[in-house]
Write a structure and sequence with these properties.
heterodimer; A: alpha/beta; Rossmann fold; 46% helix; B: alpha/beta; seven-stranded mixed sheet; five-stranded mixed sheet
Chain lengths: 344, 332
């Protein structure tokens, strides 16, 4: 209630404030910054642990896409459900996961969210409504539609969000899922995080339409383009889409234009884009820097406050890695667990 | 308590099972292409839409991959979908959701979720529908840990196994031979289950074991009856479940008869017959064998259109009779 009153006051006092600064309290906005830092430092911590041989396999880092994950998850409750992608660490944190258990999963430990069976590409936290990252491009999109169908049939009032990348918009599953969601008017939000490249192939080379949001028209749903590096813009679109979904008006496609700083995965030699391009995004369009500047401009936080956030995050990451290191590995004798539901 | 037993067709038995499941559990609903007013390509859902409405007997667009994914997502989040593929061949369009998602989700998430989805696949040849509408792909899915794969052969079993599948917390794939849909048999009224993972000895015998699946069970029984006149006493095992396979029933039978013939409609190579044979070869029943194991399966070709060619592609009763006779008389 306090939130709503304060937001209303803000709106009356400063109608020109960006959406998020009208909608959310100072405390909420500082928490957003905290989470954005948590995502970035988590990714850096995971990368470092990988380099040092503590994590095996591969991983897909979402550094540079923090505002997109946070903006979309802002209007969601813990009951609302998401499906995520191979580049899903940020979504998981934005939806409320504990970085300790995420690191533990990456380290393959029993304390991890998937007890060491899933790793980076299947990170999930069903208690917070994250139905899981997915190793298959577009694999989670129809699943989110199924979750939305369940919400509608069971009248739970939940909405489902499917995150996917620009690469997924050329998969058949994307088109089949959007069509069904629209035909059945389901409470689902399709969030395309367009970071410009599906692995090495640019959207210009892979996708016939200029904007992926243009494809919404084919499925009779709103298609919204947002600057994915601008938290407030993303949150505004997400709020509108969630409202529409909860009101029973059906799905929305949001195209969140963003950029990944790191390569596609750990095998990427970055030969398909220029150093200048990467540096330009990092220097001029960094989502955390942009958000910090706004927070300072509107008097939500000062330099000391930002430093305190950074320090807090640093400690959470260090604690998470320690927790993961200290956690037990699965026993080989439990190899065949969880394939089928154990019948009592 | 006496339960009335009627003669129902295999298709009617499926329909009755789905109706009972929907009556007993509000979470159960049906999805598929043209299963509503049309009643399904094989009239299996029939008039269920009139009884349960289009919300619970949901027509989907022709979107096998998306539809299967929606069923998986709905199962993951509290519903109990029964998804009908119009033909089992169309599983090829949905393999991603079946194999990568439904089968693995529980495991990938460390046991935090389960996916209680049932998928129904009208399968098999004999309808003149040629190569893309006649396949038997159960071994494909049987190769995937996380799935349960069943092939009920009778109206009684398909009703009981479908009800067991709906109650099962994990994904169950049901392969229904299309030529069985009109076959009649005794079916008890009301709710009952037939366990997944249990083979059934359909006919006791001393001289030879035939392990058969789906429609081949009936052909094997016919062949066994014919050979009884020649003094050959055949045991017929209806495998019923491809995964998890009831190897013990097979092993016990082979220890008694010392001869094994596997009969199945799918392409012979790398199929169910190989798995059944290996189960015996790897067990102590191996020492009881008096002759090499024989497999009768489908020819190594796509299913042809011409009816004579089509028939010749999959084992028929005379083929089973000849193979069983040779095996029993030590001609192999």
């Amino acid at each position: 209630m306090a939130t709503a009153r304060k937001a209303a006051n803000n709106e009356a006092a400063q109608p020109n404030l960006p959406f998020a600064f009208r909608k959310y309290t100072a405390e909420q906005l500082r928490e957003v910054l905290h989470k954005m830092y948590l995502i970035r430092r988590f990714e850096e911590g995971a990368e470092d642990a990988y380099m040092r041989g503590l994590i095996h396999g591969t991983m897909h880092l979402s550094i540079g896409q923090e505002a997109s994950a946070m903006g979309i998850c802002m209007p969601l409750t813990d009951q609302d459900q998401i499906t995520s992608t191979h580049r899903g660490h940020g979504h998981c944190i934005a939806k409320g996961a504990d970085v300790k258990r995420m690191f533990a999963e990456f380290f393959g430990k029993t304390t991890g969210y998937c007890k060491g069976r899933g790793g980076s590409m299947h990170i999930a936290d069903v208690t917070k409504g994250n139905l899981g990252a997915n190793g298959i491009v577009a694999g989670g999109i129809p699943i989110a539609v199924g979750a939305a169908l369940a919400a509608k049939k069971l009248r739970t009032g939940k909405v489902a969000v499917s995150f996917f990348g620009d690469g997924a918009n050329n998969e058949g599953a994307f088109h089949e899922a959007l069509n069904m969601a629209a035909v059945w008017k389901l409470p689902v939000i399709f969030v395309c995080e367009n970071n410009g490249y599906g692995m090495s192939t640019s959207t210009e080379r892979s996708t016939a339409v200029k904007n992926i949001a243009d494809r919404a028209g084919a499925y009779a749903m709103p298609g919204v383009i947002v600057d994915g590096n601008n938290f407030s813009e993303v949150a505004e679109a997400a709020n509108a889409a969630v409202e529409r979904a909860r009101a029973g008006e059906g799905p929305t496609l949001i195209e969140s234009k963003t950029y990944r700083y790191r390569g596609h995965s750990k095998s990427d030699r970055n030969r398909y884009r220029t150093k200048e391009e990467i540096e330009d995004w990092m220097a001029n369009r960094d989502p955390i820097a942009l958000f910090e500047a706004e927070l300072k401009e509107f008097g939500i936080i000062d330099d000391a406050g930002i430093e305190a956030v950074r320090e807090a995050v640093k400690k959470e990451i260090a604690d998470g890695i320690e927790f993961a290191k200290d956690s037990p590995s699965p026993e080989i004798r439990d190899l065949e667990n969880y394939v089928y539901t154990e019948v009592a | 308590m006496d339960v009335a037993v009627r003669e129902l067709s295999y298709a009617q038995a499926i329909q009755e099972a789905m109706a009972i499941a929907m009556e007993q559990d509000e979470r159960v609903f049906l999805m598929g292409e043209d299963i509503g007013v049309y009643g399904g390509a094989f009239q299996v859902t029939g008039d269920l839409v009139e009884r349960f409405g289009s919300e619970r007997v949901m027509d989907t667009p022709i979107s096998e991959l998306g539809g299967a994914g929606v069923a998986v997502g709905a199962a993951l989040t509290g519903l109990r979908p029964i998804f009908e593929f119009q033909f089992s061949d169309f599983a090829t369009l949905a393999m991603e959701q079946i194999v990568n998602q439904a089968a693995k989700m529980r495991f990938m998430l460390g046991g935090e979720v389960s996916v209680p989805v049932v998928m129904r696949f009208p399968a098999g040849s004999g309808t003149g529908a040629a190569a893309q509408h006649s396949q038997s792909l159960e071994a494909w899915l049987g190769h995937v840990p996380g799935l349960k794969v069943i092939q009920p052969a009778t109206p009684h079993d398909v009703k009981g196994m479908l009800l067991a599948a709906v109650a099962d917390p994990d994904p169950v794939m049901i392969f229904e031979h299309k030529l069985l849909y009109k076959m009649k048999g005794p079916v008890p009224e009301g709710h009952y289950t037939v366990p997944i993972g249990k083979a059934d000895v359909r006919r006791q015998g001393r001289d030879l074991t035939i392990v058969a699946t789906s429609i081949m069970v009936h052909k094997a029984l016919e062949a066994a009856a014919a050979l009884q006149a020649e003094g050959i006493d055949i045991e017929v095992i209806d495998l019923r479940t491809v995964r998890p396979m009831d190897k013990q029933t097979i092993i016990d039978s082979v220890k008694k008869t010392s001869r094994l013939l596997c009969v199945y409609e799918a392409v012979k190579t790398l199929g169910i017959g190989a798995e059944v044979s290996a189960a015996v070869a790897e067990s102590d029943a191996f020492d009881y064998l008096d002759a090499p194991i024989v497999r009768l399966g489908g020819a190594e070709i796509p299913i042809p259109y011409n009816p004579e060619l089509e028939k010749a592609t999959v084992p028929q009763v005379p083929d089973i009779v000849a193979a069983a006779r040779d095996l029993a008389k030590g001609k192999r």
